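request received
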Amino acid sequence: MATSSPRIIIAVAALLVLIIIAGILLVTRERAPTTPTLPTPTPIQTPPITTPPTQTPPVTQPETVRELVIGTSKIRVPPDFYEFVSKVKRGDVRVTINFWTAMMPFEVKVIDRAVKQFESEYPGVKIQYTGTVANMKEAIKAGIIAGDVENTAHVFTWAHDWTGEMADGGFIVSLSKYLPRETIEDLRKEYAALAFSSGVYKLELYGLPWAIEGIALVCNLDMTGGVLPGKFSQLEEIMKRWYNPERKTYGLAWQIDPYHVYPLITAFGGFYYDEDRDAVGVNSAGAVEGFKFLLSKVFPYMFTGDLGHEAQLSIFEEGRAPCIITGPWNIPRIKEKVARIAIGPIPEIDGMKPKPFSGIKLLWITKAAEADRNRLYASILFALWFTLNDDVTRMLMEEAGFIPVKVSSLDFLRANRDKYPIIAGFSMALADSTPMPKSVKMAKVWGPVAEALSSMITIYNEKGREEAVASVSKLLDEAQKKILEAFKG
Amino acid sequence: MTSARERLLYPLKIAALLILGSLVVYISFSIFPIAYSIYIAFTDASAKNIAPGPRLYELREAKSRITEYLESRKDYIVGEAVKAKTLVDETITILDELSTTIASATPENISVAAINRMRGDVDGRLLEVKSIVVSESTKLYLDPSIVNPLDRALRTLDYRVWQPADQLLLYKIHVTEEDLARLKETVLPAVDEAKILLGEASQSLELVGSNYNGFIDRAMGEIDRQIDELTLHFVGLENFRRLFDNPRFPYSLFKTLLFVVTSVPLKMIAGVTLAIIYTSPLILGRRFTRGLLLLPWAIPILLSVTTWRILFTPERGFLSSTIEGLLGYRVDIYVNEWHAFALYNIVEVWLAYPFVMTVTMAALASIPREYLEAALVDGARTFQTLRSLVLPLILRPLAFAAILTTGASLQAFMIPLLINNGGPAKSIPLPGYTPTTGYSNEMMVLYGYNRAWLDQDYGLSAATFLVVVSILLVYAVAWYYLLYRRGWASV
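response:
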């Protein structure tokens, strides 16, 4: 008996190993397909509003929508949503939602004030706001995959280019499934067309826009003689005047990477990736021309030894270059050092318009909010309120430099252009921009383009302009090939 | 019998519990993650399929019921499709009208109001179409031949018709010839394109009614395609083939080994020399200076490497400009492959000498004083003492330090990442390969990291790390063999 005890232990152990392995395999292979949505959360005081979304789609009952003032806009909403809003306004329903952003402290402060304002307007909704979430996308995905509906974001914000990945994976909620045609029709009129469509993916509305960002030409007026060049020939004159490497002054400061040089590519009709046609255009004629232009017409006036963000920004800050091509995120820093700046579109090249990439900040509702109707509606209400509120937009604009996309705020900005020269400058420069692709495929495009561009820079610095220009086509062909291969694999 | 059982029962229970606990920990924290990461190296893992979201389960559920659902609601769905088709056709007619209006517009007769009215008509209809298509009750959104053209048409209208029209017309008091010319030039082709796309959508909507089974097939196909996109696939050795079918990874291996060959001797020489100097009682305040010398160890690597980068920033860095000023030699870590490589070596030596120095000093302290005194009495010169007495005595700890620090060089990551992300980019030449553009100092660990974080190609990244781990394993086993089997350890 005594001798058999180790055997028993081994047998038990072996059995356990088998059970655990089988368990792990089961868990990782497939979660029960019968429960596609997330676990039911703990019930809250009032029963959730009924009407399941699947069987009776909102489309078939359009006559019952009611008008509601949210923020500073009037939109038509479904009756149960209307009722929910009146309840949270009176505080009859209590619901808590999590709101996540990944922002700088000064931005978080302003957004936090907006959140407080919302809570006082709708006392039934409590918002747990986390301003600086590290690794936000992964954190949200992990929370949703784990089914942790209580501690994951219900509403979050980022630039629109996450849409494809998050929607395809089912991490964000399609608002088209919950808001009827009338609501969407009204919403569409509230935002700039470019901004609104950035939230639409495969016909469905996923995100509501509240700000736009992208790059523009920023000039130090004390160096340009009060001029903001609108044409490249004008800029070239200014660049010539200031370029003097011996005194370490340059014609232009510009962080060089695939994102920042994109306006030159579009000016010549090129593109990297067109998601509408699923086409890669890295070696398109326009892209080749754009890169050649960069090397032959712009680089000769720049400090090409270090084209990184820090080096180029300090060249401008220290008054060693009259202009910089950069985005609103650098403005707070620039304003500390440069007294008089003006902002405008990247200059036209012989009548051709450079269109930079733009990122539109959207508010999304995550799958974690979907299981509970109250929480879902509170999340939608917050997203609507935040994006439809002129006071909030103005506060975000004045105190954190966010460029609005709401039509009424844009009208306000246009009328008060002199009061907000920086915001108005970016706003105008970005009115004609190209929203970044929403598709996940874009992740496979950046790498090869960056390699080709860095290689051009190396050749430019080592062997000179002619050789660099001569290498463009070959390098871009190679990048194109790499991208197409990555798409296939 | 009973007593024997009682005696057994207690330890058996405890043993089983302990085994269970340790097994759970071992499997969940050790075996499973390792096995899983190895498995990833043989898959097509990407950001999309490595951790699929709720959509995958929704799709699987939808798949099991879709045919039945579509068949049971055929009449309703066909009816809705016809409704959508009518709306799309009406939209095309309105767009025709819009084209004519714009084409014939002059600064005198242009009516912004009329264009806006048409826009309202188009938008209203397309929104209706959109809500029919994306509705859960029609499931028309599962048919890509409807969704794709419709989606593109909507975007074409938004970005290339309404937006430029807004910019050119809406806020103008007076519309000029030039505005109109630009409008015609940019907007008219886009309107035509939208019409063609809407035509395609209309045809596909018609097909729903005329060939309903075809629609069911397309919907099923789309669900399968989406499931496939979100599922991890086993691809065998494909990732390893990709790793070696171009010169980038082989070159990265070469560069890593070269880095080991250059940095390890440098680190050892620096560490040992400093240790010998600072054990000498002749140095004043040596405890304090020795403490200072260990500082590189204490500073966070992120900070110190960044500082080194700043010191060597071309033109602006203190050291690069000093070198240029004194020697007239231009140091350019962002352009010259070997300048960057040399800086990696400098930083690596700077980071690692405190370790070598500490180990050496400990070893030196263990040499009995009598030996040194005897050498002195026998008339050995300093160099002789060092070579014939001290070095043999500290060889074993030095060998261990060398082994460990070689491991660190093999895994060089933070230094190349922080200094120039393994750059500069250039055409990578390697015999037997067609040159490919890549980063010339991308050490092997950084290569794997960049494949995951830049390219989101997790499969390739995992394969890279599997190769890295195998190299480290070979290295470790070789040393184990040399030290313990061949008896080096007993020297």
